[in-house]
Request: fold
Amino acid sequence: MTLVTTHISGSRGVSLTADCEGAADRPPVVLLHGGGQTRHSWRGTMHRLVQAGYRTIAYDARGHGDSDWAPDGDYSLPALADDLRAVLATLDRPAALVGASMGGMASFYAAATGSPATALVMVDIALRPNPVGAQKIIRFMTANPEGFATLDEAVAAVAAYNPDRPRPSDSNGLRKNLRLREDGRLHWHWDPALIAGRPTPEPPDYSTALLAVADGVTIPTLLMRGAQSDVVDEAGMVQMKARVPQLEIVEVAGAGHMVAGDRNDAFADAILPFLARAHQVTA
Reply:
């Protein structure tokens, strides 16, 4: 099935760039990337889902990739959830939501506040992330404000953040996360307003907002945790289970916070049976 790139009008007219793959009459799965990533981080997962008979939609969040930056700097959970609602409104049936980190929080908030969904997969994110792992993310995202002279320098920065992941044989995929500016250097392509002046990689009201609506999540829910994650700890999993009693938890060995990127096949192997059961439950 051919990959189609389209544009969707999100909240307050922010244009969102999305990739769609799979037959239009198949059950839809919407994939939401984490902060600082783009829709391209889901390519391997999209392929597996399409093979399994799903229609997949992965889009760049506002302020990321090829989507618009928010002119008012609004990257709050309600704004991200409203963007997701705009994407869901283009579908003819409820979708399963798969969100990593920031995308998982936006998916959870949308599902808790009335967006129609068949299932929710939160990828290595809890209602209250471990502050140690959160600070590590913010240090990475705020480092190198002067950009990089070469693609290899950007590759080295990613390797320093995630030293346990083998370096890719082809680093051109990383180029999709970078833009060449007038200064002749490569810069990460996300809006600096996303994290400017904030002490955590997510706006400080994210956890408060999630906890306030957590009881509204009643659909089948899966937490995918990287076994080496420093973002989701035991306390985070216990709190999630207490607020979302139908929660299932799967740990992926050999993966850190970037579960799908670290162990894509193991990630897909875990979510496919869950999605199949969830669609049966909600049929």
